[in-house]
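Reopening this one. Same input as before:
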Amino acid sequence: MFQPEYEHRLLRGLTGGKKEQLDLRCIPTRAGNQWARNFALAPGDSSELCENSAYTCLLRNEFLDDQISSLENCKQTAQVHAQTGDFKVRENNRLYRFANGNGSPPLRTPFANVSESSQRLLSISKRPVRRLPRRPYKILDAPDLQDDFYLNLIDWSSENTLAVGLGCSVYLWSAVSGQVTRLCDFNREDNLVTAVSWHGDGRQVAIGTQLGYVTIWDIERRKENNRLDGHKARVTALAWRGNRLASGSRDRTILQRDVRNPPTHITRCLRGHRLEVCGLQWSPTHRYLASGGSDNRLLVWTDDWPEPVYAFNEHTAVVKALGWSPHKSGLLASGGGSADRCLRFWNVLTGKQVQCIDTGAQISNLAWARDSLEIVTTHGLAQPQVTVWRYPSLKQVARLTGHTQRVLHLSVSPDNESIVTGGADETLRFWTVFTKQQKRNNSNSLTSLYSTIR
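Same output, byte for byte:
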């Protein structure tokens, strides 16, 4: 950026009988430099530097007379300068001002020595850049993992054990030891596993089957505790609320039972769907139960009313993906199938849809981050991938690819930092997608420019 001229000066000193000393100094000549042109033609992509560096934006404001007040418009300003060549350096520019126009002492306000645009820029809190690994950190083979959109065949327990339904069997994989064991097998009945769901304590797992019954297994004893009949067709969705278990079936009903009662005792039978029930989710407070079905309907139930309190019909395809926000009470997310492709958000306190975005692909599952305002979705037809979104802006944080066929299943680790996905390619892939929320401190502000300068 500078065109240095070198000036040799001889400093001759004769005191004390010392020898003459030669002092070589490099004195840059700043007069005549074209700051704007040199700044724009700096090595590398200057627009990228502007977008990512608050310090660079500040330099543009103070030396090039730009008016950048946010990181978003810095790149646009750089592109305009590069295309038009319209640069204007502010004359008699003073980065530090020690008095106002009438000579009185300077105002004691934050950033009083810089322009108004720079003051706004420096007042913005800087969001730390988070880069997600684009590849799974572990891949496991899952032979006989059924290619059926309506099933729910994987679940991660609070004890860090993954349950997977493969064909007619359920297998357990320990995330601690890596050991794989077969829990149960229904080959004698030729009975396929259609759903798995862990109890909150991680010691019991519920298994839905093709023949329509649900079986409860004790993990420590490797023994069946209970067998719950009642459905007339396969069970594809399960959801625990303490010791009460809700099950959704192709027979279009939702049964609620207390697993401590006799197997024939049914607490409630909910009828509202016209076709198969394939999604069930209790709200964090356990007040609401959301159900989705292949009739394209999303229903919300409560204990004190036999009919759904809300019936949302905006989806135009099967509704399997459901998730309640852990951050905002009454906020429910749902995803539609291949004919819909929309991620929708509902406020069940008002009964209104609050947001909607077309994801471009079939949505098979979704899950909220516990420690950050993010949500992850898995996709099937058109785009077999995993997508992480920031809420409520619904900007994509990352798109993770690796499955060669549609992604059908999703479960979140107990620490809420990793997820596991199951695909029609008969693989289980483990991804790091969420991070624990960092405590904010002063060094996280745009005013801390030393890390950028140095």
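So the earlier flakiness isn't reproducible anymore. For the record, Residues 72-84 form the longest helix (13 residues).
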